[in-house]
Amino acid sequence: WLRDLLSFASNGTRASVRRWLHSLPKNPVNFDEINPPGTRVLVCGDGMARGRVPDAYESGLKAAQRILNAL
User: Fold this and answer.
1) How far apart are CA 50 and CA 65, in angstroms?
2) For residue 36, what pLDDT is reported?
3) How many helices (H) and strands (E) does the chain have?
4) What one-character-per-residue DSSP string does 19-55 give?
5) Which of 54, 56, 36 is nearest to 46 (CA)?
6) How far apart are the C-alpha atoms of 22 and 60, rounded to whole Å?
7) Cβ(63)–Cβ(35) under 8 Å?
8) How many CB atoms lie within 10 A of CB 31?
9) Type and span of the H or E element at 19
10) Which residues, 6 or more positions from 4, have their beta carbon under 8 angstroms from its beta carbon?
11) pLDDT at residue number 7
């Protein structure tokens, strides 16, 4: 995606890439701490750990597995 952005910017269009400073959670939590066994509402996403895409993906997989196990 970065290559596409840079090629778009080379056509005379101004573009910039910046990290969003508020993307990192102040108090990350463990998936199992915030989602105890038996809970009917699951919380998942990048705010669960370090604010990274792989962490969001992993917490989504855990939530999906919990739902499948409950069926």
Assistant:
1) 21
2) 92
3) 3, 0
4) --GGGS-SS---HHHHS-TT-SS---SGGGTTS-HHH
5) 56
6) 21
7) yes
8) 19
9) none
10) none
11) 66
pLDDT, one tens digit for every residue, the chain (71 residues): 666 656 655 566 666 666 666 667 778 888 898 999 888 899 988 777 777 778 888 999 999 999 999 88
Residues 6 or more apart whose Cβ sits within 8 Å of residue 2:
17
DSSP code of residue 38 = T
CA distances from 59 to 5, 33, 46, 48, 52 (A): 29, 12, 8, 7, 11
Q: How many CA atoms lie within 13 A of 6 on its CB side?
A: 3
Cα 25–Cα 29–Cα 33 angle in degrees, nearest 5? 160
Sign of CA dihedral 20, 50, 53, 45: negative
